[in-house]
Amino acid sequence: MGKRDLICLCSTILALWSVSFVQAEDAYRYFTWTVTYGTASPLGFSQQIILINGQFPGPKLDLITNDNVIINVYNKLDQPFLITWNGIKQRKNSWQDGVLGTNCPIPPNSNFTYKFQTKDQIGSYTYFPSTLLHRLAGGFGALNVWQRSVIAIPYPKPVGDFTLLVGDWYKFNHKVLQRRLDSGRYLPFPDGLLINGQTHSTFTGDQGKTYMFRVSNVGFRTSFNFRIQNHQMKVVEVEGSHVIQNLYDSIDVHVGQSVTVLVTLNQSPKDYYIVASTKAFSSGKGAPPVLKATAVLHYSNSQSSVSGTQPAAGPDNVQWSLNQAKTFRWNLTANAARPNPQGSYHYGTIPITRRFVFANSVPTIGGKQRYAVNGVSFIYPDTPLKLADFFNIPGVFSLNSIQSYPSGNSASLGTSVVGTNLHDFIEIVFQNNERSMQSWHLDGYDFWVVGFGIGQWTQASTATYNLVDAPTRHTVQVYPGSWTAIFVTLDNQGMWNLRSAEWGKQYLGQQLYVRVYSPYQTFANEYNISSNALLCGKAVGRL
Ligand SMILES: *[C@@H]1O[C@H](CO)[C@@H](O)[C@H](O)[C@H]1NC(C)=O
Ligand SMILES: *[C@@H]1O[C@H](CO)[C@@H](O)[C@H](O)[C@H]1NC(C)=O
Ligand SMILES: *[C@@H]1O[C@H](CO)[C@@H](O)[C@H](O)[C@H]1NC(C)=O
């Protein structure tokens, strides 16, 4: 945390904030972040990166459920900039989501103060820049939400926690990579895999004690498998779900996802390898090389440095990974951030209001390779969709500009927004007909991951759904030539980004917005626009 960060819990200052989400008993946490370019040598040679308060990765946010977070972000880059809070649900508050469909970007040499609440959430999350390809230069960090003291968690409190932000990395500058995408080519294969922006992290713990490892895939295009030499990992939480606490030798983590595991240091006192390695989910000719990142688990009473064979990855095939994914199940008797058990919500018995099948594709449009969903390759208008909706500005987007099912039509550029109603209960099937992995993220929500399958989804696939103890999460993988089905209860009014978590794919058009609407416009359903909202495009001068 930088010197300028200020944490304030005093209630007199609270009273000065007239924002409608105020809940007097919840703490206020104040931060000032300055975003700059800097240099670092994560791959052994100097390159330009993006720093927050001089740090890469950015400062770790350790928050508590229901904290009110106020972060004043100063943009000292030469391009417009936004940060999105990956997995923070922004209840009634898509105003603070930090994506170009909800917020005007912060101009260079300017600032914007985000105000949001970590309402009813516990877990390991991340934040990252959502503008252009800034994310490929840094600016990301950990966002951990701890339980309130009155809430029981379904595992003994660990003596400490470690954050591992693992992700693929390029030797190229983000602007060079952007030009490449703009010219119609996709991102190259990454040049390395980093853990916390480095290739040599060490995590120190005491023999006999249990530690929490918060493992996130902050990469751009590659899934990885994660393991610790001679140690088993007990998965306790997946993106806010408390799951059945199984033990694993290795775990697959896909782009944009987070997993929280407990590890007991129950081996002889030495140092052990921590290894992450990329998975291709394809083999034979043309399969990309495996990138590996290692770190060290150091026992505080260690007698010797790391030795022996590095632990092997789980098999690099779809079936193995899919089988593991199905072992992540809701612990029905455990609570999440609220005291009631997760299993008291019988999601499997709720009638589906509407089904969407979203198929991703890689069309050529105007002579350039683009990425599309149901034949639409998303482009941003100059005015954020949320502002256009709020101020009734015509000509920015239209509802149902994308079909609910894949069509045979040729692909085109468009601003896809699907219209839904508050309290709809929807099913989304992601059909991945490409040969590469896909990872989908929905802002404003978590959702039940009810099914995975290889091949084409059909109505008959619904018979295989887990309607009892599927976990909820905010990002889900779709294997090559496979489908994944989710259920979402649309209880959060607003304008929400549904996107490929693979950053180049969303940049080139694999994203859309879900407008969750109610005809009864009340600030009880959705907060008012914030008084400091930035205005741009057709919204200039509207406040
Ligand atoms: C920029 O920072 C100033 C100083 O703290 C603050 O008063 C102002 O509200 C911020 N601007 C925005 C748009 O949030
Ligand atoms: C489920 O959660 C309960 C807490 O309610 C905990 O005692 C139990 O160990 C958990 N079960 C499994 C299998 O993880
Ligand atoms: C909503 O917010 C805007 C901007 O701060 C303000 O001008 C307006 O009065 C607010 N509306 C209500 C009903 O509070």
TrEMBL record:
It comes from the Eukaryota. Transmembrane segments: none annotated. The keyword Signal applies. The keyword Glycoprotein applies. Residues 35-148, 161-302, 382-518 form the Plastocyanin-like domain. Keywords: Glycoprotein, Signal. Gene3D superfamilies: Cupredoxins - blue copper proteins (2.60.40.420). It holds the Pfam family Cu-oxidase_2. InterPro entries: Cu-oxidase-like_N, Cu-oxidase_2nd, Cu-oxidase_C, Cu-oxidase_fam, Cupredoxin, CuRO_1_AAO-like. One of its GO terms (molecular function) is copper ion binding. CDD domains: CuRO_1_AAO_like_1. Residues 1-24 form the signal peptide. Belongs to the multicopper oxidase family. This is OLC1v1010077C4. The lineage of its organism: Eukaryota, Viridiplantae, Streptophyta, Embryophyta, Tracheophyta.
